[in-house]
Amino acid sequence: MLRINELFLPLEHTEEDLNAAILERLGIKADELVSFTLFRRSYDARKKAAVTLTYTIDVEVKDEAQVLERNKKKTNVGLTPDTGYHFVGRAPANLKQRPVVIGFGPCGLFAALLLAEMGFNPIILERGKTVRERTKDTWGLWRQRELKPESNVQFGEGGAGTFSDGKLYSQVKDPKHYGRKVLTEFVAADAPPEIMYVSKPHIGTFRLVKMIQLMREKIEQLGGEFRFEQRVEDVRIEDGEIRGLTLASGEQIEADHVVLAIGHSARDTFEMLYERGVYIEAKPFSIGFRAEHPQSLIDKCRFGPSAGHPILGAADYKLVHHATNGRAVYSFCMCPGGTVVAATSEPGRVVTNGMSQYSRNERNANSGIVVGITPADYPGHPLAGIAFQREWESRAYELGGGNYDAPAQLVGDFIANRPSTALGSVEPSYKPGVKLGDLNPSLPKYAIDAIREALPAFDKQIRGYSMHDAVLTGVETRTSSPIRIKRDDHTLQSLNTRGLYPAGEGAGYAGGIMSAAIDGIRVAEALALDIIGRQ
Ligand code: FAD
């Protein structure tokens, strides 16, 4: 197979145009081409009147050696690299103890899948419910203001990203192409096949729910065992090695290899681990609001006359501003054509996030607009970031009226520093609802000041971004984990607890679905190699 890089075509082109461009690049005739597949397709919208597509294409030709020789001077033609996944080993026939995976978010899912594929028959413990039941509970908060602390946006089968935009891109280094394995498994579980090649793949909520069920079934068929509504409440550590787990039911499970993929909202579990002496340190994260604008404004600004083109879809954006008080303000988890969602897992607290469907055809674009903070902002204790998050989430609950409505303010009023009293042209999508007012008390002053300065600056990048009627909804506090459960770089085991593999977002080793899934694969490999090496 040959790979062609950097094949540029105008946005409007036909299949024949693409075919012709391949023939031209390789200098071959039509009958020499056997087939081709898209490896990547991205767009360049810097010139709005002439948006171009950039392709990377894998091509099968009749005489590969000859075509390669003819193109040997071209840097954008070469052999297709091997990006397939190769297992690091197989479980020993006399496996003494099954590994346990705690948490079935993207990290736990891929750790469990890999372990199952290698024959380790993992046990998966998940505190929340199966995804169908969990969906009902999650909508219960959005529609009836009823929060289920063990079954919500954060907890349950599929993890935090289940009710999400399902963005699947990540900036993590991936030299072993684990991301391809993740995408391949998603497509096998009925994800849209285009996620294999579009530069910014996304899935959307409804599809994710179905995919997660299918992936669970696959893990079960491979020998995995699922136990839902089984919160791990304690760990037994002896001589610096994990020995067992205690579930909320009181049941004890023997375990000497445990993947800890518990996400960033398992605050009670973080506290338990800290009390048991597992090494944890504070880490930076970000806080802010969700901003909502008309999607049409973002589309027009990003794509000009090409706005609405089906290949481009709803436009996203990425913004950064370095404020004069030294804080960085940036857009986070931008959801084109989506909705702002209530994402708390604790009663009496309000947290925002964003989600969308595959079609991304809701009226508003939303994004976190967040400010970077560090442990210097919540000093004194490795878990102080959790108390800090709780403080602002509780305040948002009060400002929202104490009924899970979220506090909100129009961008124009926020910039002018006056409370909002009436909505304008942008209808906020947060459910159960928003309470308009003054967002000043909802975050520390340095964050408010930095965001107030950033919004007009963002207008220079997206004209209209600081429009008066755009809506800010608070508060966005769970951008990433406030802690890191540190692990050894080589063995990926906890620094001081052998056999414990802190992984994914909660442990501070991922931020997003793709990076959490990749970390799950890495940890599964490290765990497998440790068992194989020991036995
Ligand atoms: P999680 O997904 O948080 O999974 C952890 C799991 O562990 C949970 O299911 C939890 O119930 C379980 N658990 C916790 N404690 C225990 C315990 N003691 N015992 C048993 N089980 C336990 N990222 C993107 O890349 N793209 C997006 O579009 C996107 N949108 C998002 C939208 C929303 C609304 C939210 C909340 C997040 C979004 N994210 C998105 C972030 C993404 O979901 C997370 O980065 C990712 O899910 C982290 O994966 P994880 O497996 O490390 O942890």
TrEMBL record:
<dbReference type="InterPro" id="IPR002937">
    <property type="entry name" value="Amino_oxidase"/>
</dbReference>
<protein>
    <submittedName>
        <fullName>NAD(P)/FAD-dependent oxidoreductase</fullName>
    </submittedName>
</protein>
<dbReference type="Pfam" id="PF21688">
    <property type="entry name" value="FAD-depend_C"/>
</dbReference>
<feature type="domain" description="Amine oxidase">
    <location>
        <begin position="213"/>
        <end position="268"/>
    </location>
</feature>
<feature type="domain" description="FAD-dependent protein C-terminal">
    <location>
        <begin position="284"/>
        <end position="479"/>
    </location>
</feature>
<dbReference type="InterPro" id="IPR036188">
    <property type="entry name" value="FAD/NAD-bd_sf"/>
</dbReference>
<dbReference type="InterPro" id="IPR049516">
    <property type="entry name" value="FAD-depend_C"/>
</dbReference>
<dbReference type="Pfam" id="PF01593">
    <property type="entry name" value="Amino_oxidase"/>
</dbReference>
<dbReference type="InterPro" id="IPR028348">
    <property type="entry name" value="FAD-binding_protein"/>
</dbReference>
